[in-house]
Amino acid sequence: MKKRQRLGQHFLQSQNIAKSIVESAKITKSDTVLEIGTGRGILTPLLCAGAKSVISVEADSELYSDAQEEFSNLSNLELVHGDGFKSDVEFTVFVSNLPYSQSRKAIEWLAQKKFSRAVIMVQKEFAEKLFSESSHEMRAVSVIANHAFDMEQIIDVGKSNFNPPPKVDSVVLCLEHKNTLSKDLIKTVNHLFSYRRKTLGNILKKFGQTVQSTKRLEELSGGEIIKIAKQITQ
Asked: Largest alpha-carbon pair distance within the chain?
C-alpha cells in the first residue's frame, strides 16, 4: 500500500459517485471508452455495461493482476498493463479517476486527442484554476483546457469517499471536445508562461520575434495567448 500512496492513489469507494461519473459520460453502445487507471475497478464494470468496448489501462502490476482475475467475465473489456498516456488507442469517451499528480498531464494529453466527451476527477483547487475568471490566476493549463474543451463541473466529492482519504476535496469535470491542439503548441503555451512576469515584447524576443508591446500575459485573453503561441509555432 505504501507504494500506491506514494503514487498519490486514493481509491474511490462510493458506488453512488461511481454511478454519477459513468452517467455523466453518457455512454452509448457505439462508444469505445478509454479508462486510464483501473485502480480497484469501481468504474470498470459500470463502463462495460453501457459501452461497445472498454480499454482500461493500469500501471500498477498488482492492481492489473487483480482486475484480470475479477473482470475475466466481461467480454467487452480489454485490460492493459502500462502507462495509459503512452497508448495510442482510439476512443470516443474517456473516463478516469487519476492520482491528482496526473491531472495536468491528463488535460494536456486529452487536448491532443479527438473524442466526444471526457469525465475526470481532479483536486478541487486544480478545478478552480481551470475555471478562474481572474487574470492573475491564469495558468498555462487553464488556457490549454479552455481552448480545447467546453468544461462543466459535475459533482463535488468529499474526502470521506476515498480510501485512504486524501487531504483535499475533489471535483468531477465533464470535458466536451472543442479543438485539438498539437504537442508543439501546448509546449509553446507552457514556455510562454515561464516568462509571465516579462512584457510581451520581451517574451517574443526570446522566440526571435519583434512586437512593440508592454502588455503582460495576464492582460491577454486565453484566445490571444493561443494565437501568439500559434504564430511562434508555425
From this structure: 64
Task: Express the helix, strand and coil content of the chain in percent, nearest 5 each.
Answer: 45, 20, 35
Collect all residues with Cβ–Cβ distance below 8 Å to 168 and sequence separation of at least 6. 100, 123, 124, 125, 159
User: pLDDT digit string (tens) for 219-233?
Assistant: 999 999 999 999 999
The H or E element containing residue 183 is helix 183-193
Enter the pTM of the model: 0.92
Domain count, the chain: 2
175: number of Cβ within 10 Å: 23
Which residues lie closer than 8 Å to 228 by C-beta, 6 or more apart? 192, 200, 204, 220
- Domain end marker among 180, 202, 221: 180
Residue 164, CA distances (Å) to 53, 196, 218 in order: 30, 37, 38
> Is 80 exceeded by the pLDDT of residue 85?
yes
Domain co-membership, 18 together with 52: yes
- As a whole number of angstroms, the distance between CA 29 and CA 52 comes to 5
**pLDDT for the residue numbered 1:** 38
Cα–Cα distances in angstroms (integers) from residue 134 to residues 7, 129, 139, 142, in the given order: 31, 9, 10, 11
Within this chain, do residues 107 and 173 fall inside the same structural domain, yes or no?
yes
